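2024-03-11 09:14:02 INFO queue: dequeued item Probable dual-specificity RNA methyltransferase RlmN, len=353
2024-03-11 09:14:02 INFO validating residues
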Amino acid sequence: MSEIAKKEELGAIRKLSFEELKQLMIQHGDPAFRAKQVHEWIWKKSARSFDAMGNIPKTTREWLNQHFSLQCVQTADMQVSTDRTIKSSFKLHDGHLVEGVLIPTRERMTACVSSQVGCSLTCSFCATGYMDRKRNLESYEIYDQVVLIRDQAQEKYGIPLTNIVYMGMGEPLLNYANVLKSIEEITSPDGLGMSPKRITVSTAGIAKMIKKLGDDQVKFNLALSLHAANDTKRNQIMPINETNTLVALAEALRYFYDKTENEITLEYIMFNKFNDTVEDAKELWEFARKLPCKINIIEYNPIAQATFVNAEADALAKFTAFLESKKMIVNVRRSRGKDIDAACGQLAGKKTA
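2024-03-11 09:14:37 INFO prediction written
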């Protein structure tokens, strides 16, 4: 039997709630407090094996090994960019690969994590969009990416992780339950204890799920990958727009903000001679002015599957000047990790398992 098959036969202990874990351990003959100790090892101490749980009796650790698996994510490959960005290929328990990135800047250390193996949305400028979606990640597989990238930040640069962005492979809102559960595990005092205000979830724009975030009164920030502010152009590059129009998205974002008062960011990649004119900037302003938001203009990162080219510097200057003249908050984001295909839109799980 293969190692993967053996792991699949064992119960995934991190799928259990604390109460479920406690009941199983009591049935095994352990005292109730033992479940709290095991839970702390799993989530607060991020233990990668049952044998590492030092204060758990050997007989209990043997029972855990016989009946359960932690299904830990492993680092299969790691590349370091000239700008210190680190891209990791993460191997899941079933052999699938996803990618995550540590983005170091002067102000912050950011982990960019994936939420799906592949993606079903087929955005034409994104490398992940040319992959088939294999499956959703479990909440603990997202959590593990954060832990591994956090450890990279400490080991390589001696600086703690400050921010997390769900901007890697996949559409987070199509893995809604596991994404929210992962954030709960990351922000819980019994988990990594990070502030939800330091977490941003990015979506290609699924209106009903954005409203659901509002109904669930989430505490984290939301980013919309907009990239065009008229439906004709957005349909061309993001087919999801055909069923989630700009009118529907504007309404959903307003609903989200009214329910949560959480920060909204509009992400806008500028493509040469496609969405980079002052008229395009005017359309973006018309969309953005209805919302309390900021705008991130993002440098395009070429991929082999597409022919898009980054906008010219002059077009970028005129575009941002127009938005700033309308009192919009605009940030121009320069690519990081481009030389190792770690930049926005370039993640594609290239290493073979």
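2024-03-11 09:14:37 INFO annotate: The chain has a mean pLDDT of 90.
2024-03-11 09:14:38 INFO item closed
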